[in-house]
Amino acid sequence: MAARSLLKSWFPTTTSPLVCNAPMFGTANASMAAAVSRAGGLGIIGAGFDLSHNSAQLANLDAELTKAASALSIKPGQHLPVAVGFITFHSSFEHILETVPPLLEKYKVAGVWLAFPQPGAHADVIQELKKKGETWGLKAFVQVGTVEAAREAVDHGADVIVAQGNDAGGHQWAQGASIVSLVPEIREMLERDFSGQDIALVAAGGIMDGRGLAAAIALGADGIVMGTKFISTKESPAPEFLKDRLISTNDGGSATIKSTTHDELQGTGFWPGYVDGRAIIGDPYNEHKAGSSLDDLLGKHKAAAAEGDHSRKIIWCGTGVGLIKDVPSCEDVVKTTLRQYGEITTRMSSS
């Protein structure tokens, strides 16, 4: 079956091509995910990284899934057309098969998304999670930033490869490529090395509208994921000052930068060595480049936060930030993206 038809069969409430929001921890909540799914996309809740017993993050995920089910009028026992995303490098990952399946089964979620593992950590976990969700068709998404990581994910049992290019906002592979070369190379690898297997490919990184969707499909993707675009939506819990900053930022290629410094400046430098992050270049970054010590800058960051001063906050976003002009609803984002895509493909087919 063609991969785009495959996605439609796996996620029957969605429109083709598939449009997803990124599972941004702290931003992709029940309101966002439910709105995306209601509009014909696949909404994904960012669940976090603490998978330990008695995890506050998992307790919050339970509450968010309850909200999503209510918003979508899903009754207990019915399939919830929402996925959940986990960051998997944390030491508590060893508990995933004990703590996560009860939540997946309770809500019968559409998919589970895994990102940023320690080397080889997903080897047995993906198949075990899929076995536990086999009765309702649980699908496994794995976020990757290289062709080799994509191959490993398929070997481990991934159903959907999320090819994240380096135009993406937030955390990503430190060494990688944009979707312009990453997606076609992964597509070629899938067709060559995994011919006949049911594997879908979605693109992420720098995609902001129907033009990006059309480009991603032309490159070989079956759908897309948007993160930065969904931060600046009505359902997003991001504060107004942050949405205003996204709207006012132009020329995303020069206004943002990939670096581990962003995490160091806010005291979250615990990511694996192969990961960095893209954020808006602000005073803290420039001061560090000018010679200020990380200790001094971290102190300033904490002091500013305590005083409600947002000027030193790290604002994660992708290079497409210059295309953000307003704060639409998630429904508007999904439907406008699909409408633009349709117009583009119609125009191209008639030219």
Structural overview:
The chain is an alpha/beta fold. Helix content is 43%, strand content 17%. The protein contains 16 helices and eleven strands. It has helices at 3-10, 30-38, 56-71, 96-99, 101-107, 125-132, 147-155, 179-193, 210-219, 228-231, 240-248, 252-255, 261-266, 283-289, 294-306, 330-350; strands at 18-21, 43-48, 80-87, 109-115, 139-144, 160-164, 170-173, 200-204, 223-226, 256-259, 275-280. An eight-stranded parallel β-sheet has the order 1-9-8-6-5-4-3-2. It has a three-stranded antiparallel β-sheet with strand order 7-11-10. Strand 2 (43-48), helix 3 and strand 3 form a beta-alpha-beta unit. The longest helix has 21 residues, at 330-350. The two termini are 29 Å apart.
Q: Any key phrases for this structure?
A:
about 350 residues; alpha/beta; eight-stranded parallel beta sheet; 16 helices; 11 strands; about 15% strand; globular
List the helices and strands and how they pair.
Layout: H1 3-10, E1 18-21, H2 30-38, E2 43-48, H3 56-71, E3 80-87, H4 96-99, H5 101-107, E4 109-115, H6 125-132, E5 139-144, H7 147-155, E6 160-164, E7 170-173, H8 179-193, E8 200-204, H9 210-219, E9 223-226, H10 228-231, H11 240-248, H12 252-255, E10 256-259, H13 261-266, E11 275-280, H14 283-289, H15 294-306, H16 330-350
Parallel strand pairs: 1-9, 2-3, 3-4, 4-5, 5-6, 6-8, 8-9
Antiparallel strand pairs: 7-11, 10-11
